[in-house]
Design brief:
With 204 residues, this protein is an alpha/beta fold. 20% of the residues lie in helices and 18% in strands. The protein contains five helices and ten strands, in the order E-E-E-H-H-E-E-E-E-E-E-H-E-H-H. The strands form three sheets. Strands 1-5-4-9-3-10 form a six-stranded mixed beta sheet. The protein has a two-stranded antiparallel sheet with strand order 2-6. It is globular and about 45 Å long. The chain binds zinc ion (ZN). The site of zinc ion (ZN) has 4 residues, from loops. Zinc ion binds at residues 45, 168, 176, 178.
Length: 204
């Protein structure tokens, strides 16, 4: 179900970092943010499962949710046995139809960025919120995904002092490529674009 989000104010992040208007799928792959860090960064990713070549990718099924909850059916795809050893998560997933799913409260640390650094700060998971867009480096994202992403960013800015909105590739260059060349930064709301323009940031 896609929650009604046409109202710009429809999404609210509560004091625990939960957006109760969206479907909650709790992930065990999280822990307490060290040093009582308040998140000030959003990291944008893309993900699709099962993996596939351009043109053959299926954006359907529940494999992403299963990955983030350590419930992948290793018999469902030849690649899943390897993935099943991962312990990963993100705070949010925005699916192709625009549905937003939350896996980890924003006050907790989700495990999305891996080895990463930004402007001298290491371990970006400590101070960031991870948003996965269902998609890939090889095909455009859906318009509704940008609509929902902007609603979510708006809600996050209302709750946290967000000062950086970056792609995974920017904090893990050479190791990660997402959100990829089809992600259109210019589709993000103006307050985010201004952050990026004034934020001494080079897009890689
Ligand atoms: Zn990523």
């Amino acid at each position: 179900m896609v929650a009604a989000m046409s109202d710009k104010n429809a999404l609210v992040i509560d004091a625990q970092g939960v957006c109760s208007a969206v479907r909650q799928v709790p992930s065990p792959n999280c822990d307490v943010r060290p040093n009582e860090n308040v998140p000030d960064m959003v990291v944008i990713h893309n993900i699709h499962l099962p993996p596939g070549e351009p043109g053959t990718m299926a954006f359907s099924g529940d494999a992403i949710e299963r990955l983030f909850t350590n419930c992948l059916d290793i018999d469902a795809h030849e690649c899943f046995a390897e993935l099943s050893n991962l312990r990963v998560s993100a705070h949010f997933l925005i699916r192709r139809d625009g549905e937003i799913v939350q896996f980890v409260p924003c006050n907790l640390r989700a495990w999305h960025a891996g080895v990463s650094s930004w402007q001298g700060r290491e371990r970006c998971n400590d101070f960031s919120i991870g948003i996965e867009l269902e998609g890939s480096d090889f095909v455009p994202f859906e318009a509704i995904q940008y609509v929902q992403l902007n609603l979510l960013l708006n809600a996050l800015q209302a709750r946290y002092p967000i000062a950086h909105v970056v792609g995974h590739s920017e904090i893990a260059p050479g190791r990660k490529t997402d959100p990829g060349p089809f992600f259109v930064w210019e589709n993000l709301m103006s307050s985010v674009l201004e952050l990026r323009q004034t934020g001494y940031i080079s897009r890689s």
